[in-house]
Amino acid sequence: MKLIFEKSVSGRKSFSLPKLDVKESQIDIPEHLVRNEAPNLPELYEVDIVRHYNQLASLNHSVDRGFYPLGSCTMKYNPFLNEEVAALNGFKYLHPYQEERTVQGALELMYELQEFLKEITGMDHVTLQPAAGAHGELTGMLVIKKYLQENNLGHKNEVIIPDSAHGTNPASAVMAGFEVIKVNSNNEGRVDLDHLKSLVNENTAAIMLTNPNTLGLFEKDILKISDLMHKNNALLYYDGANLNAIMGKVRPGDNGFDVVHLNLHKTFSTPHGMGGPGSGPIAVKSFLKEYLPKPVVGMKESGEYYFDYDIPKSIGKVRSFYGNFSVLVKAYTYILSMGKEGLKKASELATLNANYLKEKLSKFLDVAYPDVCKHEFVIKGTSLKDYGVSTLDFAKRLLDYGMHPPTVYFPLIVDEAMMIEPTETESKETLDEVAAIYEKILEEARKDSDKLKKAPLTLPIKRLDEVKANKELNVKFD
């Protein structure tokens, strides 16, 4: 497929403007900002532009086109109802500088969403400001930092993080000014409780946990972990990336967590991927309320909604205005349309689908931790080396079958890892087809390993030299 610049023909235009019928404005533009030559823009007819971008779109894989099992990323189906509601004029044309009395409907939605998220997580207070999951992590850790400083616990500067954790966890902790201490996993793939006990001391500020963890396993000792941390005046931080597995079934707040971040763009079915938009609200227990970013949405006794800036010990704003509002609308729509039982059913089906596919694949591939999983599981692809291929080769070959590969080489504690999350919306027939394709590719590896090493073979872009692409990044058309 040609680039749009390669389709350009000099003199062609996709639009025409009427002749200027008002006096031309004389704007004093600084000399250094004035162009000396016309910009190098492609010249095409409108129909050619439309066709070009539609052809590009048809090459893009998405959850609407096929199976998209990115472990820990929850690429779940996004109902079009969410998009239609977010596009309603009353939401679409709002301006953040409008007076509060003119946006009561939007404020009511945000307030009710806060209340929904409090109930789902078992927490006491919520801010909708953070723009994504990692942003929510940083916000949560800054809240913990401020709490410690305000309560003469500033010496607590260590945050414990499992060796299976998402990479954003240590990054967020370090950015908030903490030192990261790694706790090992045990032979079940869960936090090693004895190792954790040896790490906790007077400098321990918090532990960051994903539950279920990145191996798809629920931390059975969570109440023991919670008790251990709280006895040492340390807090529990919940990474909500995997809440899709337990929403409606287990509430992090009931397990002793003090801060929770949520990924609305994962758990609550708003578009996710390609860098945004996202939303990563955090929820906290009551003793942390006074440190939340301001403003939060409140309701007066009269029933009027307002932005509450009266948070004297707030960590301050973490996002311009009030968060990614359209994403909030989509999450609110999803929660309302699903209802309490629907959210619970989604978790049950996500767990059922993951365990069903795990059992199918375990007949010919090694599952890293064969215990009953929640929403995802991890394949250990070391057996592929027997045929001279790698997990990466296997993943590339999946593309030829119209299927997005799972997350690969993560978590780091599993050699040649493939982390697979089928989500709740996939049918039994789809999962059977997935298992059949995996088995077929494994057979190809046995008989013709070059096919995997050269994959993908059927896409417009073939196998890239990834090292060169990383070292010599050049995306400019010359």
From TrEMBL:
Catalytic activity: N(6)-[(R)-lipoyl]-L-lysyl-[glycine-cleavage complex H protein] + glycine + H(+) = N(6)-[(R)-S(8)-aminomethyldihydrolipoyl]-L-lysyl-[glycine-cleavage complex H protein] + CO2
UniProt KW Coiled coil keyword: yes
Domain Glycine dehydrogenase C-terminal residue range list: 346-447
Cofactors (names): pyridoxal 5'-phosphate
Pfam family membership, one: GDC-P
Gene3D superfamilies recorded: 6.20.440.10, Aspartate Aminotransferase, domain 1, Type I PLP-dependent aspartate aminotransferase-like (Major domain)
Top-level EC class as recorded in UniProt: oxidoreductase
EC number of this enzyme: 1.4.4.2
Positions bearing N6-(pyridoxal phosphate)lysine: K266
CC per GO annotation: cytosol; glycine cleavage complex
Superkingdom, taxonomy of origin: Bacteria
Database matches in InterPro entries: GcvPB, GDC-P_C, GDC-P_N, GDC_P, PyrdxlP-dep_Trfase, PyrdxlP-dep_Trfase_major, PyrdxlP-dep_Trfase_small
KW Transmembrane (keyword) present: no
Domain Glycine cleavage system P-protein N-terminal: 28-301
Function of the protein: The glycine cleavage system catalyzes the degradation of glycine. The P protein binds the alpha-amino group of glycine through its pyridoxal phosphate cofactor; CO(2) is released and the remaining methylamine moiety is then transferred to the lipoamide cofactor of the H protein.
Cited PANTHER family: GLYCINE DEHYDROGENASE (DECARBOXYLATING), MITOCHONDRIAL (PTHR11773:SF1), GLYCINE DEHYDROGENASE, DECARBOXYLATING (PTHR11773)
Similarity field: Belongs to the GcvP family. C-terminal subunit subfamily.
Protein name listed in UniProt: Probable glycine dehydrogenase (decarboxylating) subunit 2
Protein source organism: Petrotoga mexicana DSM 14811
